[in-house]
Each structure stands twice: as structure tokens, then as C-alpha cells.
Amino acid sequence: MLLKQFLYLKRHGKTLPLIIIMIALIALPLSASSSVSTACSIIAMVAAMLTIWVTFNNRGIDEQAKWDAYARSLPISTYAAVGSQYIITAIFALAGMAAQFIVFTVSGTGINKLAAIVIVFTGAIPLAICDIALPFCYWLGCRKASYIFLLFCLTPVVASFLQAHGINPTLNVSNQQTPLLLGLSVLIVFAITLVSLFISCKIYTGKEV
Amino acid sequence: MKAHMENMVEVRNLCKNYNTFSLKNVNFSLPEGSIMGFIGENGAGKTTTIKLLLNEVKRDGGKIRIFGMDNIKDEIKIKSQIGTVFDESYFYGGFTVEDIERILKNVYKTWDSSLYAQYLRNLSLPRNKRIKEFSKGMKMKLSIASALSHHPRLLILDEATSGLDPVMRSEILDLFLDFIQDEGCSVLFSSHITPDLERIADYVTFIHKGSIVLSLPKDELTEKWGIVKCGASKFADLDKSGFMRWKRGEVECEALVRDKDEAKRDYPGLVVDNATLDDIMLFYVKGEKS
After folding, report:
1. Which end of chain A is more exposed for a tag (fewer CB within 10 A), N or C?
2. Which residues of A touch B51 (CB under 8 A)?
3. pLDDT confidence bin for A89, thresholds 50/70/90
4. Beta carbons of B94 and A8 less than 8 Å apart
């Protein structure tokens, strides 16, 4: 079923290689110069956008074609049918991390504490967002599930509220704590992914097509 | 009719309850090497039964055995030997027939690329054209080619010929007849186009309001069952115990009988016609019963 996900991208995502080439053309010269942070910001943003877009695009095509009704007649397990959606999401999240890694390497900055945080969170944040969104996609459909992105728009409001009440959500992480924090972040996102996959499979199996 | 060894599909006391509709104690068997027409009006429960066979909806009671195995416990094993065709194409319009093959080749271990290519050639399906450019008939042909190219033992068709013109339907029915030439294969064919079933079916199962009304060899229905016709006044005096169902008109009345030869003997002087599957369906849906 993973092949189907790539074929969707091949047939539906002609613009995808163009976006990647364009980002590479912008990010690589910036990373070679002193503007590494600009390059990283662009990559983080594009990686998040692409990961979410691919997830919603592929799931949306399945929905439009009523693929699930057909897939349920095929000799494939629920985990294979639903899991392929998670794998394609993870691949794009990992590609974003790889792009960040390349930028830091090309720029000569090396993988220091900040670079490691940026690399991990470039993949972890969009993956976690998709993990939250996918069970809703299976339950309510992609269009309704996309409304949960409105919740992310509330992030600045929450931050302002916390700051107004004297709570500073930023963490002061020491060099020693960084590997622990990153390891923990990866574990948390991995756990969220597994829970999300489990919920999506339950919804997929329970849904009468 | 062929000599049948065992049942490909056995449905026993199958139940499914929805708020507005229930499938009640559905029982039927599909023998190996035969085509079963599954008929009934829209909303009678044909698609629900097929979805239950494929475990696409959860049953509330009963048992389903396909190839002698439980349809839930051995779901993957069973589905690898089944080909399914629904009333619409579920393939993404941006795909080509080659993309479909790439996907299904990874799904079925027994996928036969040369057989698929042969079907594409015979059915005149273009390899590089996108599915969204296909007509409804071409999409249906593609669904059938995809369903047959992994050498299934059982073909399940849900309204596969509805909405197609007679020429296209005839071509598709020929495919099913070719498929059934292999004695070990069977077809369960849900349709409300009864002439299609009269042409190819060995057995007919009729479902009405969620219950099986009859499940019999087609020849018995088309050759033995009949319709007794007479005037309304004469009909009032007739003994109706031998009638399955009847329809009263202001001038003429008609009654469905199980044995037209017997009816000719029992009701001398009355007209006794052959009954088609359409007639039988209409009598059960619209007719009266004492």
C-alpha cells in the first residue's frame, strides 16, 4: 500500500519536485553564507507544510475515490492499509530532518546543541501534528479534520496568556540535558504515532463502509 | 447443470440490524462451479449481505463460511482467493491501468501479469490513458480485469452490470461465463437486471426486505414456475392454496404457481404462462398472500 501512496504523489504531486528544487536553490546558498538560521527556518516551514500537505492529500484522494471500501475487500491487514499513510507522513518528516542536517553540514556549523534541536523538531512537530490529525481524518473525513488546524492558530493566544500570567514556557536547557530532551522528544512523538496509528486502525475497522 | 461437490459459500442465520433495516436469518449456499444470481429490489439487503461476506460490516448474528473457512477468522486467506467488483470504480482517476497493476501485484501473491495484459487487450483498455478519461463501461471492465487477474476461486459482483448498455453487459457476462469454465470457480452475482441472471445463473437467491424468499436452481424457477391468469370473478371462486402469491386487478387476476404443469391440470381452461425472474420478483414484492 506504500507504493499506492507514492503513486498518488507521482500522479498528483507534479509540483512537489519543483518545490523541493526551489527550496534547495534558496536554502543551500543561504546555508553556505552566514544566513544559516534563515535557511533552517525556511526548511522547517516547508518541511512542516509538505508533510501535512502529503498526509491530507493522500488521505483525501483515498476518500474521494472511496478506496477504503475497495481496500476492505483486498487481502491486506488493517495495519498495512492504515500504516502506509503513517509511513508516508514519517518519510516526509524524516526528509525535512535530513534537509536540516545537510544545511548544517554544508554551512560548516556542525551538529551542535541548537542544530540537534532544530533537526529533531523539524521532523517531530509536523509528525506530531499529523498524528493528531490522522485519526480525525479517518473518523470525520479530511475536510472536517482540517478544522483542527484552527487549534494551532490559538498557539500565540496561549503563549500571550501564559506570559501575562508570568509563566515562561521556554526551556533553558543545558548542554548535558540536550541529549535527554531530544531523546525524550523522539520517544514522545514515537509514542504519539503508535497511539494515533492504533486509534486510526480501530476507527478504520469499526467504520462500516 | 454441473455436478457440484461442495459449497464455496455457506451463509447460516446471518443477521444485521440497522435502525431502519434488518437482515433477518439469511441462509443460502453457493455450490462450487456455479453462478448464483442474488436478486432483490433496491434496499432489499443484497449489498449488506455482500458487505457481510467481505467482513466490511460487522454481523450481529449467524455464520459465514467461505471455502470452508470462517470469513472473519481466516479473512486474509479467504480474500486472497476472491475477486470483487462493485457497482462503481474505486480507483483514483489519476491512475493508469499500469498503476493499478503495480498496486495489486503487491497485494496478491498469485497476480498474473500476462493474464492482466490479456484482459486489457481483449477488453480494449488503453494502458496509458488515465482512468478519469474512461467511460463507465471501461471502468467496469477494468474492475473486472483487476478482479480476475489473480486467479480467484470466487468472484463477488455487486451490481456490476448496472448502468451499462446491453452490448457492454453482454461482453461482461461472457467474461463471467469464461471464468466459470474452470470447475473450481464460482460467482455470486448481485443484480436487479434479471435478464442477465436468466442468461448466466445456475442458482437464484431472492432477498426481500432483509429475508431470503427463495434460493433455488434457476431452471426450476424459469421452467417449472408459472403464472395462472383469469378474470376477477372467476379468481374469487378459485382455491388459492396452491398459489405462492397473487395480484388482483379490476378485470384480470394473476397468480404465481410453483408447478405450471400441475396448475394446468388443477385449473383446466385457465391460461398458464411461463414466469420470468422479473415476474417472480414482482409477485413477491407487490403480490398478496393469504
Report:
1. C
2. 208-209
3. very high
4. yes
pLDDT given for residue B1 in this prediction: 46
Instruction: Give tens-digit pLDDT for B16-72.
Output: 999 889 999 999 999 998 999 999 988 889 999 999 999 999 999 999 999 999 999
pLDDT of residue B194: 87
With contact defined as beta carbons under 8 Å apart, do B70 and B64 qualify? yes
pLDDT digits (tens, 9 = 90+) for B184-231: 899 999 988 888 888 899 999 999 999 999 999 999 998 899 999 988
* Chain B residue set in contact with A, beta carbons under 8 Å: 51, 54-58, 75-80, 82, 84, 86, 88, 90-95, 99, 102-103, 106-108, 156
What's the confidence (pLDDT) of residue A207?
Answer: 83
**Residue whose C-alpha cell reads 523522539 in the numeric block:** A186
A77-81: long-range pairs with CB below 8 Å, 24+: A77/B76, A78/A201, A78/A204, A78/A205, A79/A197, A79/A201, A80/A1, A81/A1, A81/A204
Helix, coil or strand: residue A205:
helix
| Residue at B1 is within a domain | no
Q: How far is A68 from chain B (nearest CA, A)?
A: 8
Please report, for residues B50, B85, B147, B279, the alpha-carbon distance to residue B42 in angstroms, rounded to integers and kept in the order given: 14, 18, 24, 16
pLDDT tens, A160-183?
Answer: 777 777 776 555 667 777 788 888
Give yes or no for A108 touching B (CB within 8 A).
Answer: no
How far is residue A72's CA from residue A78's CA, in Å, rounded to a whole number?
8
Q: E strand or H helix at A101, and its extent?
A: helix A78-107
Nearest Cα residue to B76 out of A78, A75, A69: A75
Sheet order of strands, B252-257 included:
B243-248, B252-257, B226-231, B271-274
Say if B105 falls within a structural domain: yes
| Residue B272 lies in domain | 225-286
In a domain, B43, yes or no: yes
- With CA atoms as reference, the chain B residue closest to A204 would be B56
Residues B131 and B232 in one domain: no
The residues near A10 (Cβ < 8 Å, ≥ 6 apart) are none
Residue B150 within a domain? yes
CA atoms within 13 A on the CB side of A91: 14
Instruction: Sketch the domain layout of chain A as residue ranges.
Output: 2-206
Total number of domains constituting chain B: 2
Q: Which residues are registered as beta bridge partners of B10?
A: B29, B65
Residue found by looking up cell 474512461 in the block: B134
| Three-state DSSP state, B289 | coil
**Reported ipTM:** 0.83
Q: How far is B81 from chain A (nearest CA, A)?
A: 9
Q: Select from B17, B56, B77 the residue whose CB has the most chain A CBs within 10 Å, as the one to mutate to test that interface.
A: B56
Q: Inter-chain contact B80–A67, Cβ cutoff 8 Å?
A: no
DSSP string, B148-211: HTT--SEEEEESTTTT--HHHHHHHHHHHHHHTTSTT-EEEEE-S-HHHHHHH-SEEEEEETTE
